[in-house]
């Protein structure tokens, strides 16, 4: 294998199929501000994801920032250190103090058993992440939120199309936020969305993503410009035609990895949990002392062979300079997240990854473990 193998690769339908969408945009002369493509993608995603209302955004980070504003969240918010840094940044952009709580060692999501101890009179909300698309313990989180009258905003950036027994995972909490970044399961180059439970919150979010305008002359809030353009929405519509095949291929790759890596000493594939439909957005493995190489030595060895594995999530959000000084960032209070962050490696997974490439990655890992052949 001579070409580098990235950790993820965007789903790109045939270019010629995009041209009719472009022609439609050109002839309409509407490039943004809720044109036909935008409306059609919101409708199509509501149907595909089985949710009531979805507000499209220019990216997932602006959607997170706006979700917090829509619910008027202030003070302190309980969240996970084991996520992409945008989760924490959305709180800082709103002047909110993040309070990091440790994760569960199996799901790698916010540990509900540790939330209550972190609640103070300033706490107004919880922002959990469905990490790698594995659903949080939504029932336990809901019970705590109800008990303490807290809002729940799920960072569901990894959870496109994930379902539990009752339906879409995105129906839980007050709001859920998706990312459609190029590296995600479903992408619009850049993009994101907020799943809203009712028409009222959908309307408020629409105002907030358009400078706070409610009509030509009335501005009701200092909203951002978070709108998705017509060209991004059109690409989303095209991609929806291919998403089922892409998800099916991801599932096959996931199964192949688990078979190939089953008996490697010191390597554990993170199990799927609590989902009736998984999206296989990532393929994380955990490396411990029984493996012949350290996690970082394995990382270097694979990178040297052109396998662009990533350490998602290392460092923890709580270890970045703008978070490190917070009382809840102390490594001693986040032992599980610290440990997982030192051991995790995400392997390549994307729809056009071939079986031969998966087997090549597995062979290199098995050689590294001393368990070749
Ligand atoms: C990708 C991601 C985001 C940010 O989304 P963008 O669309 O890149 O702004 C937020 N949270 C998590 C967990 C992510 O993985």
UniProtKB/TrEMBL annotation:
<comment type="similarity">
    <text>Belongs to the DegT/DnrJ/EryC1 family.</text>
</comment>
<protein>
    <submittedName>
        <fullName>DegT/DnrJ/EryC1/StrS family aminotransferase</fullName>
    </submittedName>
</protein>
<feature type="active site" description="Proton acceptor">
    <location>
        <position position="184"/>
    </location>
</feature>
<feature type="modified residue" description="N6-(pyridoxal phosphate)lysine">
    <location>
        <position position="184"/>
    </location>
</feature>
<keyword id="KW-0032">Aminotransferase</keyword>
<dbReference type="GO" id="GO:0008483">
    <property type="term" value="F:transaminase activity"/>
</dbReference>
<keyword id="KW-0808">Transferase</keyword>
<dbReference type="GO" id="GO:0030170">
    <property type="term" value="F:pyridoxal phosphate binding"/>
</dbReference>
<dbReference type="GO" id="GO:0000271">
    <property type="term" value="P:polysaccharide biosynthetic process"/>
</dbReference>
<dbReference type="InterPro" id="IPR000653">
    <property type="entry name" value="DegT/StrS_aminotransferase"/>
</dbReference>
<keyword id="KW-0663">Pyridoxal phosphate</keyword>
<dbReference type="Pfam" id="PF01041">
    <property type="entry name" value="DegT_DnrJ_EryC1"/>
</dbReference>
<dbReference type="InterPro" id="IPR015421">
    <property type="entry name" value="PyrdxlP-dep_Trfase_major"/>
</dbReference>
<dbReference type="InterPro" id="IPR015424">
    <property type="entry name" value="PyrdxlP-dep_Trfase"/>
</dbReference>
């Amino acid at each position: 294998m001579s070409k580098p193998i990235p950790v993820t690769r965007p789903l790109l339908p045939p270019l010629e199929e995009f041209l009719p969408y472009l022609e439609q945009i050109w002839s309409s002369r509407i490039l943004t501000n809720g044109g036909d493509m935008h409306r059609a993608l919101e409708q199509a995603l509501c149907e595909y994801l089985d949710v009531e209302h979805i507000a499209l955004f220019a990216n997932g980070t602006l959607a997170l920032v706006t979700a917090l504003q829509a619910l008027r969240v202030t003070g302190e918010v309980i969240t996970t250190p084991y996520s992409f840094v945008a989760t924490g940044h959305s709180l800082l952009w709103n002047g909110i103090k993040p309070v990091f709580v440790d994760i569960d060692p199996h799901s790698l999501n916010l540990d509900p058993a540790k939330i209550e101890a972190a609640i103070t009179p300033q706490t107004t909300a919880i922002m959990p992440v469905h990490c790698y698309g594995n659903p949080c313990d939504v029932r336990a989180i809901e019970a705590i939120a109800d008990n303490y009258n807290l809002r729940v905003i799920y960072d569901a950036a990894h959870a496109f199309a994930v379902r539990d027994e009752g339906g879409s995972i995105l129906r839980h909490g007050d709001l859920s936020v998706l990312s459609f970044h190029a590296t995600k399961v479903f992408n619009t180059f850049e993009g994101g969305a907020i799943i809203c439970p009712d028409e009222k919150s959908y309307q408020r979010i629409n105002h907030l993503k358009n400078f706070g305008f409610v009509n030509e002359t009335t501005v009701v809030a200092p909203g951002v410009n978070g709108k998705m353009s017509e060209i991004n929405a059109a690409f989303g519509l095209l991609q929806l035609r291919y998403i089922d095949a892409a998800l099916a291929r991801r599932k096959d790759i996931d199964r192949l990895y688990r078979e190939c890596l089953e008996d490697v000493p010191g390597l554990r594939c993170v199990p799927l949990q609590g989902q009736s439909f998984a999206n296989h957005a990532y393929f994380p493995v955990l490396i411990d002392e029984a493996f012949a190489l350290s996690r970082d030595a394995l990382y270097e060895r694979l990178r040297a062979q052109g396998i662009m594995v990533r350490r998602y999530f290392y460092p923890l959000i709580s270890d970045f300079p703008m978070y490190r000084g917070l009382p809840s960032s102390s490594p001693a209070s986040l032992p599980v997240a610290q440990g997982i962050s030192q051991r995790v490696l995400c392997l390549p997974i994307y729809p056009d990854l071939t079986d031969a490439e998966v087997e090549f990655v597995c062979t290199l890992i098995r050689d590294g473990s001393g368990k070749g052949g």
